[in-house]
Amino acid sequence: MVKKVLTAILQTLRGIGAALRSGPRIVLAAAAAVTVFNLLVPIAVLSIARKPVDFFTWNPWLRRLPEYVASDELLEKKFSFLSQMALGWASADNAGGEGVEWSFVLDVPTLGRILATSLVFGTFFALWFYRRRQGAAGRAGFEAARPAGVAGAVTSVIGLTTGPCSLSGCGVPVLPVLALAFTGLSSGTLSLVSQLSRISFVVITCLMIAAILWFGWKAGGAPRPPPPASRRTGELEIGAPTVR
């Protein structure tokens, strides 16, 4: 039993590794698209539903980051500070000119979550294309996996949070972006939406990881696909003898 489990794990890792090596551009393109999407959609949604964004800045303290890292401050304090540091934020002033209507803060935890999610979806699409080259495109459910991956990438934004400020008073816990887009919600409803947002994000991520493991296991047990046509053509042109 243990041997079978180890064999399955090695087969899965071999399939994932082969897909990543064969399609690094796919991984980078998909990861970059998901990253940009997760960074821009919250601001776009809040600008449309609440008030257009009128302020954006990076944390000016970032210029002192190298100096702080090289300082004699305790490593534990450095890690505690840097792990929660704000990198930049966008906001919109309220109609009265006092306070903030909404704000979206990009901090280290949020950026880490976005990058981790982007890598998950980048790996998924690399495996999808790799399995298609292996000849799995005609199998049941395979074609449905791609739109499912796109839908997962789109809905991954529901896990992002933002500052509620004038909606519920600054100082309260951050809220999901989509919850803040609606006005007039009670505190109980906002709390429920916040919990559902976290649960949905975890479910989506777990489903995508499960799909990666499944694709990786199938890819690791199948023969390696031939290289793309363009690569084969290039190899033939380089290695072909000159006919006189």
Which features would summarize this protein structure in a list?
three-stranded antiparallel sheet, mainly alpha, two-stranded antiparallel sheet, single chain, 9 helices, about 240 residues, about 10% strand, about 60% helix
Strand order of the largest sheet: 1-2-3
Shape: globular
- How many individual helices? 9
Mean pLDDT: 78
N- to C-terminal distance: 61 Å
Relative helix content:
55-70%
Percent range for β-strand residues: 5-15%
Give the biggest sheet: 3 strands, antiparallel
Q: What class, by secondary structure content? A: mainly alpha
Q: Radius of gyration in whole Å, from Cα?
A: 23 Å
Number of domains: 1
Low-confidence stretches: 164-173, 235-244
Order of helices and strands: HHEHHEEHHEEHHH
Question: Care to count the β-strands?
Answer: 5
3D structure, described in words:
The chain has one domain. Helices cover 61% and strands 10% of the residues. It contains nine helices and five strands, in the order ααβααββααββααα. The chain has helices spanning 2-22, 24-49, 65-69, 75-82, 108-133, 142-155, 177-180, 187-220, 229-239; strands spanning 55-58, 86-93, 100-107, 161-162, 175-176. The strands form two sheets. A three-stranded antiparallel β-sheet has the order 1-2-3. The protein has a two-stranded antiparallel sheet with strand order 4-5. α1 crosses α5, α1 (2-22) packs across α8 and α5 (108-133) runs parallel beside α8. It is globular, with a radius of gyration of 23 Å. The termini are far apart.
